[in-house]
Design brief:
Order of helices and strands: HEEEEEEEEEEEEEEEEEEEEEEEEEE
CATH superfamily of the largest domain: C2 domain
Helix content: under 10%
Largest sheet: 5 strands, mixed
CATH architecture of the largest domain: Sandwich
CATH class of the largest domain: Mainly Beta
Distance between the termini: 60 Å
CATH topology of the largest domain: Immunoglobulin-like
Number of helices: 1
Oligomer: single chain
Strand order of the largest sheet: 7-8-1-4-9
Radius of gyration: 32 Å
Strand content: 35-45%
Number of domains: 3
Number of strands: 26
């Protein structure tokens, strides 16, 4: 009777393993992509080609002028701010103290599918003075959402206009309101609905960014020989002097062999990044028992070092040859996951063979990485790296199924290279056990096959 139960347990274990493997298999999806491709058109992709369109209500709050005090005190100046009301949702701009002509230059973006009102209300208020009074009403402007203009790039940006405040106020508010998508140039710098709870420097940590990695060079120091060395007076005069050369760049230290006759003919190799702000420090040291005494030192600023672009033989009478070697690629990744195989110097690189286009749509079923309000949460963003360029999407706050719908492009120089895509949890938004770095959720490495 034990065998059927045993077989049943084995089948259950196989099913569990099969489900775990399926979690990491490729799955076909059919999202409703934006623009698609036009046959025979060799243009670069737009922001709609590989991602789904996401529609937003944009509010550009520019400035106000001639604002009166909100509490009827005509002898004082107002502390104005704007309250944005969209159904049950309320957001506010920052306030200015004693300024009847404030300038905000803020852009707010609200997802269209989360709008539950037909009217947008913008109310200018006078902030209370800390004495327990309510904020004073200065005036307001309302917009019918159905009547808002729709902007689709490459249309020019919608110009802001002056609107006279209602409620009999004398002030005016300059604002632009329109419906658009994530292709709008205001999208990256706008304040989103889910990020209004993030204050201060946290805003900069949740916006999408594009970075360029610095170019890396080899510093090749060819140590030939040393002449006219003065022995350390504390050393034993009866033993033969043994010396070595130690090279240092920042925290990288490389040494030659210890020789009695100072003729090394060795290469010391370092890796440095542009711009070359560091110094190469060469020290000749005498080996004495268990210590090394300094005989002399040479400081060489890397900015003055010649760049070597090929493998030609250098002929010179100096006894130390130093060059920045750009004829080879400096490996900064694992070989099997390399995204760039070109020589460091651009003159020695091959021309591009195509363009890699990446659309980052969404993620489903992410693992909870933190606790918020007694439940699991994750503030997810995506990082993708290929070559010297790597990008970071915006952070979607508190969602296990985030939608980014952002698109990026890279030039491709070698088909046998790999793009790396990683999902992270943003730890800059709250304390998570003192962890300084963001936590990786899942990583994907795909070969470049769509160029």
């Amino acid at each position: 009777m034990a065998r059927p139960n045993q077989n049943q347990n084995q089948n259950q274990n196989r099913n569990q393993i099969s489900h775990q493997i399926d979690d990491f298999n490729l799955r076909e999806t059919r999202p409703s992509l934006g623009g698609g491709r036009v046959p025979g058109n060799e243009r670069f992709g737009t922001a709609f080609d590989l991602v789904e369109q996401m529609h937003y209500l944009y509010i550009r709050m520019v400035k106000a002028r001639s604002l009166p005090p909100g509490r009827g005190n005509h002898n004082s100046l107002p502390d104005p701010y704007v309250e944005i009301k969209l159904g049950n949702f309320v957001a506010c701009t920052k306030h200015f103290e004693k300024n009847p002509d404030p300038e905000w230059n803020h852009v707010f973006a609200f997802p269209k599918d989360r709008i539950q009102s037909l009217t947008l209300e913008l109310t200018v208020k006078d902030k209370d003075n800390g004495e327990g009074e309510e904020d004073g009403l200065i005036g307001g402007v309302s917009f019918d959402i159905i009547e808002l203009p729709v902007r689709v790039p490459p249309d020019s940006p919608l110009a802001a206009q002056w609107y006279r405040l209602e409620n009999g106020s004398e002030g005016e508010l300059m604002v632009a309101v329109w419906m658009g998508t994530q292709a709008d140039e205001s999208f990256p710098d706008s304040v989103h609905l889910d990020s209004l709870s993030v204050n201060g420097d946290g805003i900069a940590n949740i916006r999408s960014k594009v970075y360029l990695s610095p170019r890396l060079w080899y510093v090749r120091v060819h140590v030939i020989e040393a002449q006219e060395l003065h022995n350390n007076s504390n050393s034993n005069s009866n033993r033969q002097t043994e010396v070595l050369v130690k090279g240092t760049v920042m925290n990288m230290v490389v040494k030659t062999r210890v020789l009695a006759k100072p003729m090394w003919n060795e290469d010391l190799m370092f890796v440095v990044a542009e711009p070359f702000d560091e110094q190469l420090v060469l020290t000749v040291e005498e080996k004495v028992v268990s210590r090394e005494d300094v005989v002399g030192k040479c400081l060489i600023p890397l900015q003055t070092v010649e760049k070597r672009l090929d493998t030609r033989v250098l002929k010179s009478k100096i006894h130390i040859r130093v060059c920045l070697d750009g004829g080879y690629h400096v490996l900064d990744e694992l070989t099997q996951y390399s995204s760039d195989l070109r020589a460091t110097h651009r003159l020695l690189g091959s021309p591009s063979i195509g363009v890699l286009e990446l659309g980052i749509l969404n993620a489903n079923g992410l693992t909870s990485m933190k606790t918020r309000n007694g439940r699991g949460a994750v503030d997810a963003y995506c990082v993708a790296k290929y070559g010297q360029k790597w990008i970071c999407t915006r952070t979607v706050i508190d969602s296990l199924n985030p939608k980014w719908n952002e698109q990026y492009t890279w030039e491709v120089f070698d088909p046998c290279t790999v793009i790396t895509i990683v999902v992270f949890d943003n730890n800059h938004l709250q304390d998570n056990g003192g962890r300084a770095k963001d936590t990786r959720n899942r990583e994907s490495k795909d070969p470049v096959i769509n160029t």
